[in-house]
Design brief:
This protein is mostly helical. It has eight helices and no strands. The termini are far apart.
Amino acid sequence: MSGAALFIAVFLACAVEAVEATTIVLAAGTTRDWRSALTGLGCGILVLAVVVGALGPAVSAIPLGGLRLVVGGLLLIFGLQWLRKAILRASGHKALHDEAQAYLDEVAAAKGAVSVRRGAVRDWYAFTLSFKGVVLEGLEVAFIALTFGGNQHNIPLAAVAAVSAILVVAAAGIAVRAPLARVPENTLKFVVGVMLTSFGMFWGAEGAHAHWPGNDAALLVLIPVVLVFSLGLVRLFRRTVTAPSTQPQTSPVVTP
């Protein structure tokens, strides 16, 4: 895989997680206390830094064949889960993910919580909400960056892509101080699902000592094939969505 392809794949996947984390931090800061929310954000970043620092060398030390088999299997699992949900949303079988509504839900929950001070933290609820959101979404970002980068023996480039995605999304969130509703998250998840599924198939097969024609160039065929197949499923499933009946309603006959 080229450096550009690695950067784009990691950037897009991490951008999705960054949107969700930013929405949570914005909700905590806007409705509760910015200082506590930002403190939770900072503590979450420190925890992630420790995790990445501990796992980075460990991932690099795993033999390439075993790493590709494990990473390929995990990416295939995550990719198929994302792709399944994206296909169901695009075909009308599942409600579209609404980041604006998610923001409003977080705001409603935050407003109803009791304000409690603990130590230097003025609002423990805002702190924990922000901390948990950053850590949970950040762990997925770290997993994506470490597995993609470790598999290509280029963790620094994957880390740059992940940090770039976080900074871009965070800058957008700071600029508007509102949910990132304009970010086409459903489209992003569809694209990322296709890419994770494709890379999972590719690396999993290589880890099992299979040989792809053209080596990395096979991805240029595999990704479009997965995309076309997924779009075909969307088209097929749209036909199965229950349509409102067009038959005229007849009054029941009541017999004396």
